[in-house]
Amino acid sequence: MSLLITNIAELTSQDPERRVLQDAAIVVENGRFAWIGAAHRAPAADVVHDAGGRAALPGWVDSHTHLVFAGDRSAEFQARMAGESYAAGGIAVTMEATRAADDDELTRLVRGRVAEAADGGTTYLETKTGYGLSVDQERRHARIASAVADHVTYLGAHLVPPGADAEEYTELVCTEMLTAVRPYVHSADVFCERGAFSEDQSRRVLAACRDAGLGLRVHGNQLGPGPGARLAVEFGAASVDHVNYLEPDDVAALAGSWSGWDSASATGAPGVVATCLPACDLSTRQPLAPGRELLDAGVEIALASNCNPGTSYTTSMAFCVGTAVLQMGLSVQEAVRAATFGGALALGVQDTVGSIEVGKRADVQLLNAPSAAHLAYRPGMPLTQAVFREGERVDSRGEVRGSGRGGARL
Ligand SMILES: N=CN[C@@H](CCC(=O)O)C(=O)O
Ligand SMILES: [Zn+2]
């Protein structure tokens, strides 16, 4: 069955030529983009969706979330707004609440967040463990995550749980816990920061997870300068996330990792994506990540929601894109690229998703606006109107939501 989406006022492709087409149409066949071009030249299809003069752009690729959690930390948030600093120790509060939630409750909570993300235009989603922090709990969280997310990351190295010895816990993360989660996860992450894991501990976690065949990512340079970005480069990680406090050497190391990549044609060997998390930066009152500087240095960046109860309780990629334009100096096209193709690069799926190109998975969203610029021009507005994943509606406004997908699964 083929689908024609026509009467698109502006189509942001994020293809290698970064084309922005006016008065465009898309044809989808078997869940893939089969044709893209001017609406008046569009071929016939079995089903026609009239976009009504709306803008179309790729579905968001949210490459950094922590959706497997229970509990509420709004009091901690309010204390922060009153002047307290963020500290990694808050993770333990969520660990307790999440351990107390049974499988059904936790699954219900996670599915609700995934559905919320889909309504906001997210069509490809990563999520992490990291609030279990014991072998059984990390395995449970990985299993629950793997039922609803496209990409699951093992973050046993999120915090040394209260009462545990840091060295013994690091060893557990590298051995028994890793074996327990391995069937459910695609990559591994470590929170390399003062108050979480040291450089040496992080290195051991990254080496063990690499040897287990996992892709790597690093939470780094979030709360102060540190070794996170350089470790990510050293280990050939797919991304380093947060990157609020980068030294010139860190930027140079990240830029060097992209020397085998041709940004103009989006081909070659990808380096380490710098994943910026602007909603988190605002909620923790950290300086916004230097997205402009990184782009200018030749680093590919991603924008992600970092949805979690401690530092960034939102699934809104549109909010991240709007903030990147309004406050980080990115153009609309750069911000949309970072939230789509950039996220795909950070997850290693850039050949499949993240742009509107013939042959790629037909993940596309329509905005209640004539251009993508409205994402920043009308900040905070729920502009996403329709969301298609593999050519099927997945948002709650669509009539076929959930059919054949097991409910809220993206
Ligand atoms: N920085 C580490 N982890 C999360 C926050 C976790 C929490 O505070 O619950 C983050 O990405 O911001
Ligand atoms: Zn995070």
TrEMBL record:
Enzyme class: hydrolase
Binding site for 4-imidazolone-5-propanoate: R73, Y131, H158, Q222, T311
Cofactor section: Zn(2+); Fe(3+)
Subcellular location: Cytoplasm
Catalytic activity field: 4-imidazolone-5-propanoate + H2O = N-formimidoyl-L-glutamate
Cofactor annotation comment: Binds 1 zinc or iron ion per subunit.
Major location (coarse): cytoplasm
InterPro entries: Amidohydro-rel (IPR006680), HutI (IPR005920), Metal-dep_hydrolase_composite (IPR011059), Metal_Hydrolase (IPR032466)
GO cellular component labels: cytoplasm
Pathway linked to the protein: Amino-acid degradation; L-histidine degradation into L-glutamate; N-formimidoyl-L-glutamate from L-histidine: step 3/3
EC number(s) from the headed UniProt entry: 3.5.2.7
Binding site for Zn(2+): H64, H66, H219, N306
Binding site for Fe(3+): H64, H66, H219, N306
Pfam families to which the protein is assigned, alphabetical: Amidohydro_1 (PF01979)
UniProt GO molecular function: imidazolonepropionase activity; iron ion binding; zinc ion binding
Domain of life (superkingdom): Bacteria
The entry's keywords: Cytoplasm, Histidine metabolism, Hydrolase, Iron, Metal-binding, Zinc
GO BP term, pick one: L-histidine catabolic process to glutamate and formamide
Domain Amidohydrolase-related per the UniProt entry, residue ranges: 56-377
Binding site for N-formimidoyl-L-glutamate: Y131, N308, G310
Family label: Belongs to the metallo-dependent hydrolases superfamily. HutI family.
Protein name as catalogued: Imidazolonepropionase
